[in-house]
Each structure stands twice: as structure tokens, then as C-alpha cells.
Amino acid sequence: MSDAFNFELKQKLPKSLARTGVIRTPHGEIKTPAFVVVGTKATVKAMTPEQVSDVHAQTVLANAYHLYLQPGHKLVEEAGGLGKFMNWPGPTFTDSGGFQVLSLGSGFKKVIDMKGDQPETPKRERKAFVDEDGVTFFSHLDGSKHRFTAELSMQIQHALGADIMFAFDELTSLVDPYEYQVESLGRTHAWAERCITELNKLRNEHPERPYQALFGVIQGAQHEDLRRQTSKHLGAMDFDGFGIGGAIEKDKLGDIVRWVNEELPEDKPKHLLGISEPNDIFLAIEQGIDTFDCVSPTRVGRNGAAYTYEGRVNITASRYRRDFTPILEDCACYTCKNYTRAYLCHLLHAKELLANTLMSIHNEHFIIKLVDDIRHSIEDGSFYELKKNWLARYYNL
Prior knowledge:
With about 400 residues, this protein is an alpha/beta fold. About 40% of the residues lie in helices and about 20% in strands.
């Protein structure tokens, strides 16, 4: 770690891996646990950066793959980096592009066989191919051919200028056999070493740049031995923190996060990639996760779903057509203070763009407040009471 980036562990919850802390970056602090808002293409969909700030988001994550394709990482670098380009003054994350290994390759069109030889998965449909050196893929925008390596991923993320970057990794699927998981981890480990080497080179070439932290990514699917082995291996390397990734069945989430965090260094931050369901949030935090991200709050909002304390509700339902109350009476978000369910129902049915903005504002505010409340409950010792009461109400248990 650098003086410009560090993690301070503040408080631990007894008989648990849950903790509070502060991640300090060149662009500000992140009080943890924290929900990281996703701004895939240097924008949180349907929201301005000012609105993102107003829902009390501390940090934003953008996608290196998408920004590489459009508008290009060099252009973002020319603009002064991701934060300046999108007018976000706070801390930023970028992912490595590794997720596209699965989503464009074995996971293309929702089929996740790594070998691509299932009858319903013609090989011609695959758009990403893995080898020992990197990944060759075809753009989802125009079909053009590209290649990612560990070195290029670091060059892209360095140019984007995020405070926290992720090492390039291979994300496998749950149907991949154990032997392939072992083979894949070997690649991820080798790529991790290459990422560190390349980033150190870039840091030396550009000493004037703010420090960019690098997180190693823990894979291993649902195999305890592989998760623990790779955590020990990457945990001994010169990373500033760690991301936990991979295809995970919901009922295995808590175990996998616990296995990993029992092996990784306690004094470094841990990020869980891609969760926002409330019960998963409680579970992940209880097992030692400091930050996590997900596109779900804005995505479900654009499709008419709003978070409430009694679960998600579909605002397009006919019963809300004449409901002149807010989504939540006691919600402090801009949407709930100014607009009714009836108006939102109208906007959604009329396919007005304002619906996307107002629904997204509420949902992001709701999830961020939940995580903030969990952080405060760890501090004051009421975590288990909050978890029990909150989840019972939300899931009608």
C-alpha cells in the first residue's frame, strides 16, 4: 500500500468476520462496509453524478471493457481520467474486463459451458476465446476482433485513472469440471503476477499520477480447497486488496466468502463482485466483505421495480394508478419527497425517460441506506437485531 491509499480497520463484530473501516484513496475516503454504485460506461444509468452524490454514494465502479471499446481509454485519459471525464469527484473503481471472458465466451447467450460444445451452444456463437496468454474476443458493438492480456488490462485501467483496479482474471462457470477450474486458476495466478509487474512499470513511467490500488481477484468456483489455496497464493502477493468473484450459487455465498476471508490478510479490504439482494448483503458483510457492487438497483428500477421495506414492488401494477402516496412515506430520497406512485406508474406506462431517473434514485438511495445502517449497527452492537428484524420484514418471514 501507499500513503495515498490505505485501509484502516475500525471495529470488528464479536463472533463474526464483520467489521467497519475506512479505505483512503487519492480522491477521498470510503467508509466501509459500503455499496459501490455501478457506472458501467462512465455513467450511472439515468442518473447525473450530482444525483449519485445526493443518494449518498461514496464511490462508483466503471467497466474497463466497455470504456476500452467506447469511447476508448486513451480518450478518457486525455480528458483527465474517469472521474474528471464523468464529473465524479469521489473515489472510483474499474474492473479488469475479466468478466467478459465468461459473458462473451462460455456464458454467451446465457449458456455457460466453458468448452462450448453443448448442442444448444454452437461454437460460432462464442465471442471470446481463452488461451494461456490472454483472451481474444469480438466486440458486441460491431463484431471487430480484439485481444486482452494482463498487460493491456493494466494499461487500460491505468489510463482510465481509477483509484482501485482489479487484476485480470478468468471467470469460470459452475459447469466447468474441477480439472478445468485448477487449470483456470493457474492462468489467473500467472496473470496476477503479470498485472503487478505491468502496473509497477506504469507507476515508474508516470510518477506524477495519483496512486492506483490493485486488487487481486479470487476465483475457484464452489470448491473449498481451491478457494482457500488461491486465497493463500494471492494473499501473499503484493496486492492492495482483493476482489471475490466467480459464479456462485446463492446458498453457497456465505461459505465461500468465509473460506476466502479466513485465508486473506485481515488488514486489506475485500470486495465482493456483483451482489445487491438484501439477504446477500447481510450475509456478505457478516463474513467480512468491505465493499460490493451491483447494477441491480438501477436495472430493476428501469423495469418498474421499487425497493420497499416489505420487499420489491412493481410500480406498473394497476393498483398504483391512483395511489397518490410516495413509494415510501419515510424515505428521504428526492423521488419519495416529490413524487407519487401514481405519477411513477404513469411515467413507466408512458415509457417516459424520467421514470428511469426517479426509480433509479429511489433504489440506489434505498440500498445505500441499508448498507449505511448495517455499518452503524456494527458500530453500536445492534447488527444481529437489525438483521433479524429487517430481513423478516422484507421477506415476510
